[in-house]
Model the fold of this input.
Amino acid sequence: MKTKIFRAGLVALALLPLAVSAIPAHEGHAHAAAPSGAEARLGTLAISGAYVRATLPNAPVAGGYLTIANSGAEADRLLSVQSPAAGRSEIHEMKMEGEVMKMRPLPGGLEIPAGASVALEPGGLHLMFMKLTAPFAEGTTVPVTLTFEKAGAVELALPVAPATAEDHGQHEDQP
Amino acid sequence: MSLRTIRIALWVAVAGFAVLATLAYFFVKVPAPGQGGIGGGDYALTTGSGAAFTPASLQGKPSMLFFGFTHCPQVCPTTLSEMAVWYEELGAEGEKLNAFFVSVDPERDTPAVVEDYVRAVSDKVTAVTGSPDQVAAMTKAWGAFAEKVPLEDGDYTMDHTASVYLIDGQGQFQGTIAYGEGSGPALEKLRRLIAKG
Done:
């Protein structure tokens, strides 16, 4: 019996991180349609709702958002993002830890599991464009190349949505 | 491993999670009003128009206080635009409320830079920045978190408290509006703050 409880304790310890990782409940859910964005198909991958946000004055950074659906039988991985409009482009994750906003690059890229859909949306995963060559102006488009491990590369023209566009993912009280 | 072991393990995990969640509740929460001297301390910063900003600037009228920076792709523009929307909703009542956007990245955010950034969204929100020492003194005074996170190429971003602080007309901390809380509860808190004065 003792060993059983001991073993149970070990399993519990192993499970704890899972439980803890479920704590930040701040991340939004994409129940509201993103501004009608760019679309593309690449092998078994379908990219939809892709857009970037316009920048405010003096802000040389911008966020990009899109959904990637993988209808294939194998997982793929978004390895990198590139744009001639930015000195550097990365895949980032934003997280609320308590009241603190934390943002981190995902150097290993982002897995798109087989048969699954991964949303990059305000409040969570996003494309991060830095050292912009010029401000992102509403109504224009920004060329962006996404490179996947298996499917290869695809270029999209991402429409620029207003800088202060409603952050749908964060407003769960709205219809 | 028997089913029984798994069942016990799961219950132990649940208990452990409950303990952690309880601890998190007590340690992660921003202190309640009047607690722990939040807002105490001295600091001298500058507004975007070049005026002095000190603890006295948070007295007279109730205030909203937000700590952000211009190299911020999402939380800061969103919060600024929410403040603009709240002012619209408050109408004339909004005249009794100040709002401050304090940069936690003073190395890049000079008064002119942060002024342009804020002014693009709202003429009701005052931009504030200062020397790194004085900005640090102010974040410390308000218990706000701000930390540089290095990126490649010598670039960096900031982790920062994303809540809007609510301060009464005596400069006392009254609570916060959490990021993404929604305009319904936010307006309720602001109306209560304005009524208190």
Confidence is low (pLDDT under 50) at residues 15-34, 167-175 of chain A.
